[in-house]
Amino acid sequence: MAQNHSHSSRGRHVSSHENGVVPHERYQKLKRRVCDMQTDLEKVSKELDKVSKELDRSRKRIKSLKREKELLLDRISRASSLIRQIKKPLRGRASNKKSSPPTPANNIVNTVPITHTSGKVPKKRASKRPLNAKTMKVQYVEQDEQGNYKLPVQIGILTVLSLGTVVFERDTFHNERYIWPVGYAVKRAYNSMINAESQTMYVCKIEDGGDGPKFVIEAEDQPDKPIIANTATGAWTSVVREANAIRHRDHSNSASGPDYFGFSQATIRKMIQDLPNANKCKNYVEQHFEVMKTRNGGGRRRGTGARTNGNGRTNGAVDSPVSTAPQIPEENGVESNSSNGDADGDGDVVMSNSGEGELESEE
Known about the structure:
Blueprint: H1 2-99, E1 135-139, E2 153-155, E3 158-162, E4 185-191, E5 199-208, E6 213-219, E7 222-229, H2 232-246, H3 257-261, H4 266-273, E8 288-294, E9 301-307, E10 350-351, E11 357-358
Parallel strand pairs: 1-8
Antiparallel strand pairs: 2-3, 2-10, 3-4, 4-5, 5-6, 6-7, 8-9, 10-11
Coiled coil: 41-82
Region (Disordered): 1-30, 89-131, 292-363
GO cellular component, one term: nucleus
């Protein structure tokens, strides 16, 4: 009996020993597994940080490339406008040469002396006339007693709703050719971006973006989806691209931002130049304008001799409105608001808020 008791006590001792060892081994395994999981989580966290940083860099790069694209499109637009300005006087000179009567051969006199040594005619020096010296003809726009323009006023296919406020303290709100006032707003018709069968009205506005102006376009048929860009060309390029896409057109999606926003219109440029503090924009080159009026008996205009004075206002302009038909905007990808294709805007039709308008002379 004593022997059985010793065996039973020994069995209880062994079983208790085994019960103590097995949980300890399981604990060690679980602990190692937890440590491995923590190591894996740390690796995954580091990979996520790398991906997040790479994503941020990619977004910044995309934003920078978009801005460069908009700037390049704006430069292309300015270059195109400059080329049109240069070609216009050249075409005029060519037509004058064709219209002049030919000189008889026996009456030709060589007035340029030829040297006996070389036998070559000395070349004439090309006249260097700056583009800014050109006086641009603009329409008369009615003003109140304080000299402020009465708005809204229709100029060509654009309706000027507000001229805004000149931000002269920051150089990014103007350049040598244009001033971009905050609060400037115009309205115009163009092809809808959601309905291929119709056009809609677009309101083009300039807002303060801090570092520079923000060009905003709001479509009347989708007012909750404004298009915002750093340049006028960038904003309108998006509109033209969407409008061409739903019509399955292969036209170029490029657009002239100054044309579509109205800055290429000489009349609108004069109105902006007449705003307070416009003369404080240090990079802007003052432009010269001549206000036109109509004859009493016809629809053609003639120069009044009235030009902007020192404070940007005009003297001697008389309003003689002539009824005109509204212009229909072109439907292709690129257009110019001026009737003759000149970027200066000669040939604008001005409609006052009373519904009367004037025509510019064709000189």
